[in-house]
Amino acid sequence: MKPLTRRIPEETMTALRNPSAMLVNISDSAAEDYQALLFEAKNTKAEIARNKSLDPEFEHDVYDELLTQAEIQGNLKKVNTIRALDKLNDALLKTDKDLLLKALKSKHLGLKNVNDDNIDNYMIRLQEIKETKQNNNHGEETTLERDEVQAAVNAGNLDADVEYQKSQCVISINSAIDSGDMEQLMKALSSPSAKLPPVYDFAGSLYMEEFQNMKTEKQTDLDYDEIFAAIKVLSAVAAINKAVEVGDPEATLQTLCDPEACIPNLDEHNSEKYQKALAASKNTKLGSSCDLLTHFEICSCVDQVNAQVQEEHERVVAIGTINDAVDSGDPKQTIKALMAPAAKLEDIKEEEGYHYHVLLVREKTKKSEEAGDEGVVLWVEDIQSAVKTGNRDAEEGLKLSNGVEAVNKSIESGDSEALINALVAQDLNLHSVIPDCKQQYMDSLVDFRKDKSSQGEVGSGWVMNRIKDGSKFFYNVHTKEYSWTRPDDVVKDNGILTKEEIQKVVTEVTAAHDRELLFQANENLIVKIQSHVRGYQARKNYKERISFMKKQLPAIITIQSHFKGSKQRKKYRERRDFLRNNTDAIIKVQAMIRMHIAMKKFRDRLKYFKDHEDAVVKIQAFVRSNKAKHDYRALMHEENPPLNVVQRFVHLLDASDVDYSEEIELQKLRKQVVTEIRSNQQLENDLDQMDIKIGLLIKNRISLQDVVFHDKKLAKHKEESVSVPKGLKALSKDCHDKLEAYQHLFYLLQTNPTYLAKLIFEMPQSKTTKFMESVIYSLFNYGSDQREEFLLTRLFKVALEEEVSSRVDKMSDFVTGNPLVVKMIVGFNRNQRGQNSLREMLNPLICEVIEDKNLRINTNPVEVYKVWVNKMESDTGQTSGLPYDVTTEQALEREEVKKLVDLSIERLQQITDKFLSTILASLDKIPYGMRYLAKVLRSALMTKFPEAPEKDVLKIVGNLLYYRYINSAIVAPDAFDIINVGADKQLTNDQRRNLGSVAKILQFAASNKGFGGDSSYLACMNTYIREAHEKFKQYCIAACEVEEPEVRYNVDQYSDVVMISKPVIFISVQEVCDTHQLLLNHQDQIAPDNGDPIHELLEDLGEVPTVDELLGVELPGDEKLQEQQRGLLGKTEISLTLNNKFEVPEDDQADIQQLLTRTKRLVVDVIACEPGESLVEILENQASDEQEEIHQALIKKRDLRDKKMAEGKNSGLVRQAVYVRGYEDAFESDENQNKEEFTEFRTSRGCESEEPVSRSS
Description:
Region (Disordered): 1229-1257
Number of helices: 52
Shape: extended
Helix content: 55-70%
Domain Ras-GAP: 787-1007
Pfam family, one: RasGAP
Keywords: Coiled coil
Protein name: Ras GTPase-activating-like protein IQGAP1
Strand content: under 5%
Number of strands: 5
Strand order of the largest sheet: 1-2-3
């Protein structure tokens, strides 16, 4: 120690290298560091010894000031480790891999599993840890510890292994692509070691085709990043194909909107069109090697639909322009709008514009009268029909004018033949024209024309005719021009007859001709009169004959019956005599006919069976399947299934010798595990006692002579109190027992949720929140790892069930009240993980609402009315004269206010639907704890209120999931960190009202609450609310479908006892005292059973200590100072290593379980071999020789199966083969039974010689 005192490093190194010192791992370059650290350690130890020397009872020892060999070696190792870590940190700063590898292999660090090939991974991991540590220290330069370096090395090795596995998978994937092996490709893509996104099994052809295209385009193998990115897109494309196949437009749109699908230019309003287009495109690919749509094909369909929708929109705009033109009354605007390309109307002729306009006005007027609404509009079909009618009218007018022209020309030429041809022409459509009167027509028309010509001007060529609908058609016979309106410069030509004038002349001439022929028709009239008279006479004679027959009917019937009877008896006698003379022949003929009929029926029946063989087999299979399902359901769900059902499935209960041996071995292993656990606990207890003894030995290290020397001195102070260290961490046995008792108590509170669940409701309401925050979360470490989260979830489950059973009288209490456990559940699940889920789900939607500056949702008519009045007055600069304070009904009387409210309602429904769709699609983002406790709440309510409808229970579940958890984040996103809002930027009133309106509608949908009464103007949203509520119900049902915590967190009864390190909690001393006091005050309520373990633990602890007693601190005499000191000391945190006081119970049932296993096997054999109505009857009946033979055959079959299993034991497929064979036996049994039943049926029908129908299908 002298070289240390002189502080000369060279002398210190010489002393350290002295062989007698037995020191190792000494480095010459660290001499100064050795000197400094050893000198400081020696001074520290000497200072401690000087402080102890102030105690008169302290006995000085040489090693109280000098360093021992172990302490010197420990300080040398510490210096070597620090220097090695400094070198490692220098290598990290320089990013020198060689230097880093050398530092990692330093013997002073003693790192394990350092691999030269993984140096890159080590560098990355170490830099990440160093950067994290530096950030936690506010940017100060830090040095890594050895444990941190070892953790980085282990993590680097894992990273390297993962990268290697990924590279092997990439090679396998490229190989499968080259060979075109779809099965190998899907297996490689689904490999867990590949760390690739999930793939769909049905989309193998899609993955293969797209990967082959990518590889062909790249001309080399695909790398991991390309495969990873491609799978994301292709899996999204596969999901789109699946949704298209289902035929649900909403599901298809949802998959198309998936960001992973990379489908641009989507419009949610075109979902049905997307569905139809994609389905049609997919149908065209049926039968091809890849019958799924590719990404390019889907994008093409979407673009095609968008283009079609755009065209339709432009057409709608063009149709609106046409309606406006029609309303304006200007034919020029109408023809211009009709000829617009966007309208896509056919056969538009500019010269027919006026007639088009007239027809469109007429059609619109007609629709307005039918609908009783002046605001109706014409659609495409109406407009196109009017155009076709106009064109047809023009053609009709031309034909009519040409016909009139032909008549006038015939009149001028005096050609009667040409005249009659023109008059009977179909285009002219004249009636009552008789060819025989052609000359009379000619003469009359010539005279009429002369009279007309004398009345006005002639020679202009213009003539006016009316078509069928009464429209005027102006036509010039010279220039062939025509018009629907009379031009200003047109003069009527009186030298041309119109259609009406020609028809008038023709009618008069035909009428004169008809009168001339009237007299010639008298001869026919006489003949007709005669025929009527003769008919009358014949009918009269017939009626008289009928009357006579009816009067003499009985006599007629009697005569006829006698005659017919005599004739029939004669025929009968003749037939009887013939049959008697030919009896043998008749019998033979009858036999042949009956044989023929029977054979025909047999052949027909046989043909029917052969034609419907598949149907017969299917019916038999269906009947047997239904019976098997019924029996299996009875076996699984009935408490005491019938014995015949058990016998039917007894082959499933048959166990081989291997199974029997395995079950016996399992019982032995379970017993051994329990024994080993108890042994480990005993070793831990012995180790704790050894630690205490070693501490006491070091503290009280004195020689035997010293004991004798101080014996007398101790006797003198026998009466005086001696100050000994107190507190939980002291090395005395009492302090250790106290600490161990608290560790046992908190372990029991942590693992048995019943105590805390009951204690919460025993405490005053004012203290419950404080107790929850200060103790419960500390006890469970805020759910920081899986074990604590599992235990905290169990506590919430038991507390929630306790609250429902004891505090809830009616279901509405959950909605109207503020349940304590629900607040705890929601508060815990709004931690960082739950908050991130809410942010990820709601942030895009809330940002969209907030960033829309034009969005102002206000459904209050009074407020909308006031805003409208203010705006109108500000725009005009004058007072409106309208009242400012109005009622809701008065505000809605204003059309402008009603339109604004309707617009807000429409916008509100659109935004709410987006929120609803996102929430329903984000079920997996709801924390597991919320979903599981929703499931617990549903079960507890159904148990407490069994008569309540499920919809009412789901309302309560929806209240928990939406209103308690999600609603607040929508209403106040800035308060729940859903959005980032700066200190100088707060949400405006409009933004908060918009979000509040959305949240209100969603809350109404979750609780199925509609609008009425004062809010009846919003009743139009009730239909939407009901539809949304149905979706919420399905959402709540799906949310409750989660696994149990034991499965989720992989926890069982042995998890704690096999943990490498015991659970540790950090809790303040005041919390320990408060918990102890509460348990003592309410121990009878939380544990009514006197044998409950918590009573034993509380008895071990005794009375509640004060804070200073637990810490072993003496307080001053002043009471105020004591209270202040206790308040400060109460915040001191201590760590408790929790363990279980009560050993794992010994498994005394192992032998009984083995005996039960043997008994079950024997009972199964008996059931399989002997018939009976009940198990008791089977066991009491004596077995016959036949049954003994069946049993022996069963044993031989089982031995043969065990032998095969023993031979294939190493293949790993033994048990699967046994099960498969069991199913084959069952199928073969059903097959034989089918054949036997069908053979029996055919035998009964006379078909013994035919083969039975096969059940090959």
